[in-house]
Amino acid sequence: MVVLAYAALFPGGARRLASISGTAAASPFAIALRSIQRDAITSDPDWRNGQYSRERPPAAGMRLARKLGTVTYRSAAEWVQRFDRQPIRADLRQNTPFAPEFAVQGYLEVQAERWVNAFDANSYLYLSRAMDRFDLAAHGTPHSLWRRADLANALIIGVESDMLFSIGEQQALAHSLEAGGTATRFVPLPCIEGHDAFLVDTERFGRAIGDFLAA
């Protein structure tokens, strides 16, 4: 999103553009998901209207927000491949009612715990809302923005299993660049890792980016 904004709003600042799973505007689906994550944090009594202490952050809300985010960053197909219905690791078992029983739940628990100790709640709230408000159309029509940007060419990569930044959004972005006069290459990738695929399937992404840079 930042890459797209820079290219569109600072004409001449870039000659070539490569965007991976970005968007010209936050989708209703992504906005809805992020709103639930923010609700989880602000509903935590320890949030205290943003005046929480370092020693007592809104940990419960942060954990829920992270778990939801982690689920949406990947795909149902990958969860099956990685975890299926395996039981939770012995070291993560809890002797409490409704404790996690499956490996995928244990994974979410670990991710949530790491995040609570590494990220500030208020920082997350502001970043999340900023993503919701992102909309290049506030600065002009896609046609006029990309024509003014005067890019030599562009690469738009999308992931077919990405639920946060859908493949349809990537295709629409590629079409708007083409309409603005930019020679654009659209590459849909069949990765199963969802939005986080670029962190995992480096072979496919590397090949697409390498071919673009070599052209």
Automatic annotation (TrEMBL):
Keywords: Transferase. GO terms for biological process: homoserine metabolic process; methionine biosynthetic process. Gene3D superfamilies: alpha/beta hydrolase (3.40.50.1820). GO terms for molecular function: homoserine O-acetyltransferase activity. Residues 1-178 form the AB hydrolase-1 domain. It holds the Pfam family Abhydrolase_1. This is Homoserine O-acetyltransferase. It comes from mine drainage metagenome.
